[in-house]
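job 3f2a | input accepted
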Amino acid sequence: MLTKLICRNFKCFEEIEVELGNPVVFIGPNNSGKTTALQALALWEIGLKRWNENRKGQANPAKRPGVTINRRDLISVPVPNARLLWQNLRVRDAQRPGGRNICIDIIVEGMTAEKKWECGLEFYYGNPESFYCRPLRLSDTERMPVPDEAATLDVAFLPPMSGLASNETRLDPGAINVRIGEGRTAEVLRNLCYQVSVERQNGETWQTIREQIQKLFGVQLDKPDYILERGEIAMSYKDREGISLDLSSSGRGLQQTLLLLAYIAVHPGSVLLLDEPDAHLEILRQRQIYQTLTELATEHNSQIVAASHSEVILNEAADRDVVIAFLGKPHRIDNRGSHLLKSLKEIGFENYYQAALQGWVLYLEGATDLAILKAFAEKLEHPAKDVLESPYVVYIRNNKPVDARKHFYGLREAKPDLVGFCLFDRLETAFQNTPELQGHTWQRREIENYLCHKEVLIAWARDEAEKQIGGSLFSAHWANIMEEAISEIGDGSPWSPDTKASDDFLDPLFEAFFKKLGVDNLMRKTNYHRLVQYVPTDAIDTEVSEVLNRILAVAEQAVRMT
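job 3f2a | predicted structure (562 res):
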């Protein structure tokens, strides 16, 4: 996984440092540098490949000449002149004797199998058609080593689909990867689907993708067919009326989503650089597809680095994932996105549009609450799981009912039959229900209290050890460490309904637990919903079922736009 990008003298950037995560969303208005940051990562990956192909293992690392990169090879960073890659077009320092090169420096930090690494490359200008790349200079006699962990990364830049080729010759995996690297995604979509359908887990992965596409777009994908006589792969789908059509007849949004799902399935452990994955998609599907992509990437141990200016994706990612605001100097959002939402200036229209489409609105404290609710609904096999799959949700960060009411009745001016449900952490006074706006406040301090049990935490520790390392010995060791950490954290009553479970207990608990193990914290608030699977069904408080019942009842009252 990539954890940080440092970039100097590249295009609009003099120097930036961007924290990365999984997933991470670059968000901001047009022309703010989001795509440029993705291009910096793509350029680093191209330089790394060229260096390893031509220079790795040679003697005198400090004196090795750079490898040549042709401007025309930069499909993901298209420029008519190589000089345009340099900030302010400055490729030489006129203030120094001989006009010393000004280098584009791109440094990437990452973690592979709990091992941290750093890989820096510098690029210097040759002529309008080419430039050179080599490891970053640390001193006159030393350059930064290229770690093996970086060299084995599978990084792919996937821009929005611009169409689909009418015919597609069957290609081997190497040829597919070359075309993707060249931005020719329109020529490989059927090939990727063919690989998934014939090679991955006896067709189970392909069936999963078919179900996801049907759920998102209402069409049924047919299995790709290799036509031996022509050496081509044909692929069709059935529309809502059951009519069979060639894949080229489908919409750009479907094609792009299918490309991303298929690529993740074929390349587990990859890093996907996605430039506006929400392109060609209406608002409700933006949220659905972002959720689908992040879940599939987690399942396949892949990382998503996405650039978008969609406030829908910002809302979904704001306090669950890493969000980098490209306003002024790129920075991580720590105020949960409020200032960025104001800067985008379109949230009013989008809110009204979503309210009209869904007919009901769900108010929660944050995205982690939605994730936990969904996990409980799945665990209980409650019918509310369907309405929680892609609700119109508004996050009330300050847990104040007055803010939810103000927002709701503002929307109701545009949609008089709108209904809603509010769910808050414990309040001093009960929520005042109305026929159109129902609400509930948790009897315990917050939703995390309902999954916070000693047995659950120990079961999670055992299972996590199996996933990360394997073996019953490590499972027992992790369980013992968890018991130690539990005994040391809190004021003696961590299970009390009055304890703020997330901030006062779980956060310090997992910090202490992983510190004792000597590794970075792998369990933060964004992942607490994973604990639900370890809560015995008979131990789930009946209040959780009551809340799910009420949410379902409100959703069933909704009058949706047809």
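job 3f2a | The longest strand covers residues 115-127.
job 3f2a | closed
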